[in-house]
Amino acid sequence: MDNATGERAGYRRSAGSPRGEARRLELLAKITDDVAENGLVDFSLRRAARAAGTTHKVLLYHFEGAEDLLRQVVFSLRERRIGNALTAVADAPATLTDRVRAAWESLRDEESELRRVLDQAMGLAMYDPGRYAALGRGASRQYLPTLLSFCPSHWPEQRKFEVASMILATLRGFLVDLLTSDDGSGAEAGFEALLRAVEREEAAP
């Protein structure tokens, strides 16, 4: 991956300009599509520039560097995952248990490329936290609001946070199991146990 710290000297950011922001989003969408298809291995500003049909200097005008660009790409891919889950949940009954089931089915059946890239991002955060910690920290902050919204509206905020955090951590573990096991039977069995725990939470006063 390029170290853009020195390269970006002399380039100004496009933030604040509507035209510049529109161009940034256009570039980001093209690069995100490339990463979704080809993964994070050998990601660099120059590879991103080729995917976007521009130069790495243009990217440095719109982004702070390779790591900033990577963070925004991963954020965009997580937004795709959240959007897919919300679409699935929209047709589910209003109970937390049914919403969690629908979200899990969306995660379980999502395109393998998307899951692979997001797993790679978490791997980078664990392998080199000094450089990529934001990729790991950002995941919980990005996913939790959706899970909080699934919880019954009358629950106290602390209870919502506790239950949503339990669901998030458990589902992320199941996704790792799906990635590393042959048939996914362990994840499915564990998920049924999670649903029973969620049902007990919903039934509690």
From TrEMBL:
Residues 44-63 bind DNA. One of its GO terms (molecular function) is DNA binding. Residues 21-81 form the HTH tetR-type domain. InterPro entries: Homeodomain-like_sf, HTH_TetR. Keywords: DNA-binding. This is TetR/AcrR family transcriptional regulator.
